Amino acid sequence: MADQTEIEVVDAEVVELEPRSSAQLAQATATQAALVAAGGIAAGIATVAAFKHRKTVRAARRSRKVAVGDVVASRRFLVDVHVLRN
Predict the structure, then answer these.
(1) CB of 82 within 8 A of CB of 71?
(2) Mean pLDDT for the chain?
(3) How far apart are CA 37 and CA 43, in angstroms?
(4) Residue 69 and residue 83 in contact, taking contact as beta carbons nearer than 8 Å
């Protein structure tokens, strides 16, 4: 048995938009461009802040490591080489 659904009939009419002047179109375009630029700047600032925070967190983790001894000098090659005092 097929389900019979009711069909809704909607009355509609065409509405004409009011014509815009070229000054109004230019203003709308300038506003849209400004909003897009502001959004791009905000996204850039958020990205920079996130990377700075990440760098700070990594530096804090590195500073928490306990030193093996009193490091007198340090040289970096393929691995870290530390010269320790007795």
Answers:
(1) yes
(2) 83
(3) 10
(4) no
Q: What is the 3-state secondary structure (H, E, C) of the chain?
A: CCCCCCCCCCCCCCCCCCCCCHHHHHHHHHHHHHHHHHHHHHHHHHHHHHHHHHHHHHHHHHHHCCCCCCEEEEEECCCEEEEECC
C-alpha pair distances (Å), 62 with each of 33, 59, 65: 44, 5, 6
Higher local confidence (pLDDT), 79 or 24: 24
72 exposure class (CB count in 10 Å sphere: 0-12, 13-18, 19+): exposed
pLDDT at residue 66 greater than cutoff 60? yes
In the block, tokens 């461009």 appear at 33
CA angle 34, 40, 43 (to 5 degrees): 140
